[in-house]
Amino acid sequence: MSNANLNSENEPLNRSLITGDGFVTDEPIDLTNCDKEPIHIPGMIQPNGVLLAARRTPTGKIVQCSQNSGELLGRAPDELLGLPLADLIGADVMADLVKRDLNTVASSDLQYLNLQIDVQGLPVRFTAVAHESEGLLILELELENGEDDEADNDFRWIRTFFVKLKQSANRYTASQAAAEQVKEILGYDRVMIYEFDKEWNGKVIAEAKEPQLEPFLGHHYPASDIPKQARELYLRNWLRTIVNVDYTPVGITPTVQPLTGRPLNLSLSVLRSVSPMHIEYLKNMGVGATVTISLIHDGQLWGMITCHHYSPKYVTHRIRNLCNFLGAFFSNELYQRQQLDEYQAELRLRTEASRIAKIFLGNSSPFHIVEELYASENRLLKMMDASGVAVSFNDKLLLFGDTPAPAQVRELSGWMAGKSKNYTHQTSRLSLEFAPAEAYKEKASGALYVALSPGQQNYIIWFRPEVLQIVDWAGDPAKAVIRDDDGMRLSPRKSFEKWRQVVQATAFDWKTEELNALFELRTVVDNQTKSDLQRAEEQALQNSRMLRQNEQRYLQLMEFSPVAFFTITDRHIVYCNEQAAKLLGETNKDELIGRDFLPFVLADSREPMRLLLEQLERDASALVSGNQAFVNVKCEPLQLDITLAAVSHSGRPSIMLIARQVAETAEEHTEYTSITDQLSSYMATDPLTDLPNRRAFEERLESDWNTVASFNERPPIALLDIDIDDFRAYNAVHGLQGGDLCIQNVAQVLDLFGRQHEASVSRMGGGTFMLRLDGEHANRAQELAEQLRQAVVGLQMNRDEGRNAEDYVTVSIGGVIMRPSRDYSFTHFIAQADRALMKAKREGKNRVVFMEE
Predict the structure, then answer these.
(1) What pTM value is reported for the model?
(2) Distance of CA 738 to the CA centre of its chain
(3) Which keywords does the record carry (predicted)?
């Protein structure tokens, strides 16, 4: 592998120099002030290379150099100082260096060169890295290693690394795969991956090591192990090496940089000498050499790959560059896995929260609400992974699971209501924040509160018990004082045995996706009037009809398809076409109805298939495709291409499965692809209007939100929540078919409006739509929303049979304009639009209301 930079497609590093007095002190350095140690200007380098500092001119007068130049270059410092750098490395190479943009802010790429230098009459090859430091050209040279003939391994390593990561089930198995691959590449004794918490403490989440070594997996390291200025330096380079912990630092002469009058700034140096504190720390652990790879995303250091070898070990530039690339790739890959896991978890939680919200929105009788809450006890508890939950509704307090006493709950609700923002509040340290909770901390050290009414007299509180969390520290972080020959002093920790710290009065933290799910419940606050409850009932009716329309589309697709179709409910075949019967060896498709589907799957694959069916029934997501071994009714093996999708059949969650024998002709492949594309289109569109459905609209919105939130310049996005006024009454007068026609007419207006203004439009269910505006159109959102309201009135659809010319169908529109930010999720954006719509309804309907952000 050449030394060409491999990180060009990854986000640029912060390659600015550390400057100023923030990390400088004249006091002796110990553990009380190690965050002030000026490690970016040590005045020394490691001895495995030589450093030259020259002026940025065509000849490049050398003004500083490391004191080991005689050993590696055959010329002592006093011979080099004042010498043109061009005389040493050649005029052509010097000209190339002068042309390069070495400004560290302009490029995060390492600038590599391969040089040949005359050393005492013999040509010697070096690998060099160049950068600029406060006006000087810095050239760091290391003897070229003869391992480039092993570069063929690099592709194999990269391919293996990619395959292992893509096959990993979750972020922890992915981390383990990365640790094992880096260990193989480096040949080190131990490789650990650890991530930082919000306090900068580190936890080892993956480890690959030699069998005889003590495991560090699961150990915690206090934030003081990597002080702030060290983290700043790790942000500026993907990789840092120490070849030999027992090295003797090599000084730079002269000490003072001629252009600044200060020591040479080595923030970006690959040879920079290491803090004596860190060296002592490594010696305490018995480490002989290290490689550290930064894990960075969005300019934030979230973790590190730390590699330890228990004897000196040199790593070539080729291997370092490969590790640079793999570290950058793994940083992004693991972040994407986290985002995917959180997205799927949030979708499930939002679905559950929406079901709970419908208990309050879909019942006009308080008795029925209480009755359904009792029936939903397990759902309430599981939704937030809680041990207890309290629901206050209509002056009645319901307690489920393990909770504090009723009087304690009421006292706590008053405190949490006072602390709440946007009707919610959460804590994982309740008794430490609310003294009366000390009496019941075993039951409720964690509490999550959401109000269900504007006055907060109706609410839900979930409880989590105290968890005696045992934290395994690598050595006691409190015992930093040791006795030296000179008396007592502070030093890095000598003991690296496990030190167990018990954390009391705390519960497991509430996850971000759990907190985001509360937005679904907050809609209850905005739906307290009778008209809003009627709207919710109408929406439920329309959603039911939409499911039936979708089901009819799927059945038509199945009946006339040239490939096999099955509908599976609770693992049993409830519908199939003739092609399916033919595929499984039955002469009559009716013989398959009611039969368990799993026996047709090859025995070794039945359990994974069962889990996949259950997962899809719980979580309707995108199509899942693959290759699977089956058996027919005669137990003959079949190798099939299959595609699965979550659908509704007879009002129940079901699975549609398309299957065909592995295609042998292009025509067969085209037929199968056409059917799967059509099914995919059905899943993403509303059957009545052919507009994108809610799931497709929200997935696109979330993707764009997260992308734009990472930009420095974030253009605004506007969201319009549009609802047909008094749609339930319209249905009662005109019938369901008339209601469908009304929805289609409004949808046509929205679709045309969307095309004119480059907007995305979706039917969310019932008579409700959403419209998204971007860029310059977003800035005109209020004006455009008013035009849209008038356009619907302009359809002149009469509400009643009497043809009252003054009583046309109208819409209420709630809007919000936001710039995507990491401070808020896209669900907050949608919730704000919903709140604006509710306000428009309360203020009299047929109007536009925008929420202020």
Answers:
(1) 0.53
(2) 45
(3) Nucleotidyltransferase, Transferase
